[in-house]
Amino acid sequence: MLRKLAAVSVALLIGLSGCGDGGDEETTEGPVKLRFLSLAWQKDSLAANRELVDKWNAEHPDIQVEYVQGDWNSVHDQLLTSFEGGDAPDIFQYESAAIGEFAKQGYLADLSSLVSSDLKGEISDGIWKTVTFDGKVAGVPFLLESQVVLANKKLLDAASITVPAAGQSWTWDEFQANAQKLTKSGTYGVAWALKSPTNRVMNLSLNFDGKFFYDNGGKTEVKVGDPEKEIPRRIHDMLYVTKSASPDAVGMGGTDPLPGFFAGKYAMLPGGVFLRQQMVEQAPAGFEWVTLPPIKGVSASQAANPQTLSISEDSKAKKQAMQFVEYFLNPANMARLAQGDWLVPTGKKAGAELVTSTGGKQGWDVAVASAGDLTIAPFQTVDGYPEWKTKYATPALQQYFANKITLDQLGTQLVDGGKQVLR
Amino acid sequence: MTTLAEAPSANKPDYKARARSDRTTIYLLLLPALLPIVVLSVIPLMRGIYLGFTDARAGRNVDTNFTGVENYRELMNDDLFWSAFRIGLVWAFAVTILQFVLAFGLALLLSQPLKFRGFARVMALVPWAMPPVIVGIMWRLVYHPDAGLLNEVLYRGGAEGLQHNWLGDFSTALPAVIMVGVWSGMPQTTIVLLAGLSGVPRELHEAAAVDGATAWQRFRSVTVPSLMPVIVAITSLDFIWNFNSFGLVYVLTAGGPGGRTMLPMLFAYEEAFRYGNYGYAAALGNVMVVIIVALLAVYLRRRLREANA
Amino acid sequence: MKASRTARAFQYVALLVYMVFLGFPLVWMLSTSFKPPREMVEIHPTLIPHNPTLDNYVEAFTEQELGRAALNSLQVSLASAVLTVLIALPAAYALARFKTKLGTAALGWVLLSQLFPFVLLVIPLFLILRQVDLVNTHAGLILVYVVWALPFALWMLQGFVRNIPRELEEAAAVDGATRLQVLRRVVAPLLAPGVVATSLFAFISAWNEFFFALVLLKSPDLATLPVTLARFVGVEGIARLGPLAAGSLMATIPSLIFFAFLQRRLTSGSLAGAVKG
């Protein structure tokens, strides 16, 4: 140890100044080695990931993939540090909302010329747009999370509300009316878990064509007009006017509302399709739940933030890396990965396969059908969106949903924040 | 004890002389600690400080320019940062003071010849020993509005009226996270004070007891003064650590609701790692260092002078 | 120094309150680790699981290589603790006993280095370690942890040295003991509690450290416990609570055992013993 220490200091004394290419041991012989940073964390999805990598390695002795597991909370820091340090994984999993920044910083390979036409055709143009920045494709989108509504079937029946079929969405007016019908003493119609409200509001606002970000002669600016106000106002109404949504649930995130939902305290729970997994694994015996299709305004459109597989610009074997990605995301494999994570596959064949193999049960019919409503929203390609979101939009929305400021004040804060960030 | 008090005065010059001849050994003693600090702390730190005067940004092959005080001009008008800074001061002071008071009480208890003392000492270490990744998650469960442990205890204790949405309410969010901060930092303060207590010469206590001093007087005139160096060291470090910590709060509230728990280090972290503004983030760091150093200098100068007197 | 009966009773009550406050999350974690998934979302949670299960442990250990991660963590933490104390002890003694400009500067620096947001130091540090090929090695991580723990170690230890009455050392010196003998017979026993506290600090902070371990170690075989445990946490902070609690409990216990052995030492350095020498 002391010798290492001495070695460190000597090395530093001799020549630290800036020569930044240590550790370049390029091997020309032997198989190509690729590092794949995966973010799988659910039991089934983890098993699927590992199995696919093992299978690939067995079939491709000349392209060996090392499976490295990361986690969602720290992946951003991990990637940024390894990009800066020149030690990034060849292939990594992340999401479209986050890779835009990396793409603009030049860390990601442009995949447009590497993706096969088969894979390209599988995925809709609207989804491809969410991973295209300055004309460059920064990743292959493969898993989608659409916003649906989970409901307590017995409470729906008791209020004689019929369950809409896949593709037969309720309008927001119907949803709000039904929420009110379901509200009695001890039960709220809805639990809006809005700990991270901004993405949720941005996504749903597409229902009413609320774009928030507008192009003004080459300069992006935030506008909050009537379309943008629809979703915040409706949620706020449910919380404080009709009182059909629980104000305590507003600060919750992720799976926090589940105890209340299972105990019948909340009749409906708007949330991502992945929540179905918790229904299957955690609902008490005898609890009946259903997946309601996404709610619609003037349309049922939602912003898509697909999970992606990207390749580092610094990777020495981009072609081989893409070969692996193509294999990893072929329709059968993509269906399996989606099933493991309880998310919707972007590929059309994979979706069809999934509905067949599950018989559309456990809400798979609704989930897969909702993929058609997912598309790109303006906020997704805006420089500085993360900053606007954290510094201005999230605090402002939290204040509005806690009934501390008015709708107009919310609008002003969002617009002013935009002026600060989008200079 | 009596021999100790008499002996040294006569022979002091001799001892001093020897100390002088040891001067080279001092540097030898210091060297192993200084070397790694210089290599792995001074160099990165210098670079970090320098970045605060540039427009450094994240990116591949991005040029960095020296911009002088540009960042600081911008920073003066950054209301969000200053509001975070105020929250950070409240947080750091509250956590440090509560931590110190509670830990001192616990350390005094644990130094008493109580039964189960060994077990209690191990339990006192729990917050420190638990992996941080689960600590935030456990405390979210404690504060959960529907199925939280705290509300459940209130419910079973018949105090349903006190049930509350602890982390979601604008007025209770900061106190709630301060409580978690106190909890998580208690062990190291306790252990250090406990170790310090054992260094308090028992004879001094006994001599004071013979003089008829009450327990409280003994505590004030013997325990506290002889612990002073340790107290100063641990409170200063605690303050710095608390000011710099944000991981736990991030898991609990992510700065919400409405920015009520946005700590300055979380702010700087997001500036660097989320928006890629290394230069500006480093400038935030520099400013915070200067302010905190000024605060500490006042405290340390007074305390250390007292301790050395 | 005998406490009255009521005072004693009060002390026990106070101790109990402290134990509940500090220990209940551990108890809750223990209870959670034996709960099946359905019991984790009950609106009125119970301490004793209705249908206790070992599934969480099985899942935690079969899915992630927690055993190997624990060994890695143990190696890194022990090495960091030992090295930290070895390096810090002489320096702390010098800092406390002799006033030098260098010493004052070093102490000041030590505080300063703790103040600067560490997130901004990560990238330069990473680049330095890369220069000397210490990225993706335990040695590199240990080095970082030692530097990380040194400030605390130096500050605390020099505080403890100051706590030892100089007269004791001087008296021993008068008796004709060499400096080394003074250190061994007089200073060392009195410093033992401080050394224990410091090594404990170095050990646990290395044992629990997440960020550097994540960034510096790439190979899965080298991963430490905190990084491995984090894999049970998914999107939006949703965790697989069962396996996470089971794994976390297994990660907590070694620290507690380590401390159970050391805790006696915390108060062993009584002055009475030292004066005899």
From TrEMBL, chain A:
<dbReference type="Pfam" id="PF01547">
    <property type="entry name" value="SBP_bac_1"/>
</dbReference>
<dbReference type="InterPro" id="IPR006059">
    <property type="entry name" value="SBP"/>
</dbReference>
<protein>
    <recommendedName>
        <fullName>Sugar ABC transporter substrate-binding protein</fullName>
    </recommendedName>
</protein>
<dbReference type="InterPro" id="IPR050490">
    <property type="entry name" value="Bact_solute-bd_prot1"/>
</dbReference>
From TrEMBL, chain B:
<dbReference type="InterPro" id="IPR035906">
    <property type="entry name" value="MetI-like_sf"/>
</dbReference>
<feature type="domain" description="ABC transmembrane type-1">
    <location>
        <begin position="85"/>
        <end position="299"/>
    </location>
</feature>
<keyword id="KW-1133">Transmembrane helix</keyword>
<keyword id="KW-0472">Membrane</keyword>
<feature type="transmembrane region" description="Helical">
    <location>
        <begin position="278"/>
        <end position="300"/>
    </location>
</feature>
<keyword id="KW-0813">Transport</keyword>
<feature type="transmembrane region" description="Helical">
    <location>
        <begin position="84"/>
        <end position="110"/>
    </location>
</feature>
<protein>
    <submittedName>
        <fullName>Transporter integral membrane protein</fullName>
    </submittedName>
</protein>
<dbReference type="InterPro" id="IPR050809">
    <property type="entry name" value="UgpAE/MalFG_permease"/>
</dbReference>
<keyword id="KW-0812">Transmembrane</keyword>
<feature type="transmembrane region" description="Helical">
    <location>
        <begin position="26"/>
        <end position="46"/>
    </location>
</feature>
<feature type="transmembrane region" description="Helical">
    <location>
        <begin position="227"/>
        <end position="252"/>
    </location>
</feature>
<keyword id="KW-1003">Cell membrane</keyword>
<comment type="similarity">
    <text>Belongs to the binding-protein-dependent transport system permease family.</text>
</comment>
<feature type="transmembrane region" description="Helical">
    <location>
        <begin position="173"/>
        <end position="197"/>
    </location>
</feature>
Automatic annotation (TrEMBL), chain C:
<protein>
    <submittedName>
        <fullName>Sugar ABC transporter permease</fullName>
    </submittedName>
</protein>
<dbReference type="InterPro" id="IPR050901">
    <property type="entry name" value="BP-dep_ABC_trans_perm"/>
</dbReference>
<feature type="transmembrane region" description="Helical">
    <location>
        <begin position="190"/>
        <end position="217"/>
    </location>
</feature>
<feature type="transmembrane region" description="Helical">
    <location>
        <begin position="12"/>
        <end position="31"/>
    </location>
</feature>
<feature type="transmembrane region" description="Helical">
    <location>
        <begin position="107"/>
        <end position="129"/>
    </location>
</feature>
<keyword id="KW-0813">Transport</keyword>
<comment type="similarity">
    <text>Belongs to the binding-protein-dependent transport system permease family.</text>
</comment>
<dbReference type="InterPro" id="IPR035906">
    <property type="entry name" value="MetI-like_sf"/>
</dbReference>
<dbReference type="Pfam" id="PF00528">
    <property type="entry name" value="BPD_transp_1"/>
</dbReference>
<feature type="transmembrane region" description="Helical">
    <location>
        <begin position="76"/>
        <end position="95"/>
    </location>
</feature>
<feature type="domain" description="ABC transmembrane type-1">
    <location>
        <begin position="70"/>
        <end position="262"/>
    </location>
</feature>
<feature type="transmembrane region" description="Helical">
    <location>
        <begin position="135"/>
        <end position="157"/>
    </location>
</feature>
<keyword id="KW-0812">Transmembrane</keyword>
<feature type="transmembrane region" description="Helical">
    <location>
        <begin position="237"/>
        <end position="262"/>
    </location>
</feature>
<dbReference type="InterPro" id="IPR000515">
    <property type="entry name" value="MetI-like"/>
</dbReference>
